[in-house]
Amino acid sequence: MMLETDFEIDTDITRARAPLEAFKDFIEFAPAGAKAVYWRGTYLANYSVAEFARKQQATGLCELVQRRIAKGRKTEFEYVAIKRRAP
Hints:
- The chain has about 90 residues and is of the alpha+beta class.
- It is about 25% helix and about 35% strand.
- The chain has 2 helices and 4 strands, in the order βαβαββ.
- The chain has a 4-stranded mixed β-sheet with strand order 1-2-4-3.
- Helix 1 (about 20-30) packs parallel to helix 2 (about 45-60).
């Protein structure tokens, strides 16, 4: 299942029916520098996606960052993977 995107803007895999599969496609097909939002919320609750993200970072395939989103008095985060070149 290849993602239908040009990877020029952030890819939002949080809305995918199978977010883990969408994340795997992103890692396989996205060019270096592409960004994917893999979770949005106050904390990272999807363990399988989080574990996959950490493994990809450990192997050097992506960097993991967070964006803070202020919504009034509430703060949420976007968890973002930035694709790196294959090691």
